[in-house]
Every structure is written in structure tokens, then in C-alpha cells.
Amino acid sequence: MASRLLLDANVCLDFLLRRENYAETKKVFLKVFSGEVKGCVTPAIVHIVSFYLAKYYDRGLIKDMILDLLSSVKVIDCNHEITINAINSRMTDIEDALQYYTAMHHKMDYFISLDKNFIKSAIPNLPVFSPIDFLTAFDNV
User: Fold this and answer.
1) From edge to edge, which strands make up the β-sheet containing 73-75?
2) Which long-range contacts (CB under 8 A, 24 or more apart) does 9-12 make?
3) Interval 74-84: pLDDT, tens
4) How far apart are CA 114 and CA 9, in angstroms?
5) Gap between the Cα atoms of 96 and 133, Å rounded
6) Topology of domain 4-136, per CATH?
């Protein structure tokens, strides 16, 4: 079975906007597009991505970009219980906690993020890797 990844907003934005970490994020997305791994996002991530894309593109193009992304990436969500658990967790950033606990609930294998503080706060149940660290680990499996 293919590994399941939760793709953080910063990873999606670096890929879509071809920002600083574009080369690494592109390699992760190519694995998703090929079906080698299964990529997931939350509605909050879609919201964040669409907000930042609006600074660069018109609505029509943004919708097309997000729909293209969602043709290969599945949207997963959390419920009331997951939200309460996330807020009560030891994580200080509520947005990160919501994404992380949603990923754990949906049994993701990896959480891919560029947020160094978030990477440090992960627990063994669900590792948080940068794109480059994920690619290194995944290619060595």
C-alpha cells in the first residue's frame, strides 16, 4: 500500500508558487501525481493556499490550480472530538495541532512540512518531515 502524506500549506505553496523549496516540493508532488504515494490536505490547507494564491493570480486561475491539485490530492477533515484533542494537546500552535491530529486520525504515514518548529514538535506516532528529508527517507526504504 502506498504511503499516505498530509501536505502542509507551506509545501503546497512552495510547489504552486515555485518558491524557494520548489525543486524538493515538486519531487514530492511528482510522487503523488504518479500514485507512488497518496497525498492529502485538509480544508484549512485549501483555504490557506487559496488565500495566498490570490495575491498572485485571479480567481479563475486559482480555482483551476486548486482543482488540478485536488485531482490527485484527497481532502480529509476533522470532527469535534479531533478538534478538542488537538487544542488540548501539548502543541502550542493551534493550526498546526489541528492539521497534525487530523492527519493522525486519518492514519497518515507522514506529515510533510517546511515549518522547522512544527517538525521539532512531532511525536513518534506521526513523523513530520521536510520534503527533502522525506524524499531521502522514502527513497531509502
Assistant:
1) 73-75, 38-41, 4-7, 110-112, 128-129
2) 9/41, 9/44, 9/45, 9/48, 9/49, 9/52, 10/113, 10/114, 10/115, 11/112, 11/113, 11/114, 11/131, 12/41, 12/45, 12/49, 12/69
3) 999 999 999 99
4) 9
5) 19
6) Rossmann fold (3.40.50)
Q: Domain limits of the chain?
A: 4-136
User: Grid coordinates representing 84?
Assistant: 478538542
Three-state DSSP at 118 gives helix
The Cα-based distances of 135 to 33, 36, 63, 75, 100 in angstroms read 15, 12, 29, 22, 20
Give the torsion sign (CA, 87, 93, 95, 96).
negative
Task: Give the pLDDT confidence score for residue 123 in this predicted structure.
Answer: 80
111-120 pLDDT per residue, tens: 999 999 888 8
For the four alpha carbons of 51, 53, 54 and 56, in that order, the dihedral sign comes to positive
In DSSP terms, 85 is beta-bridged to none
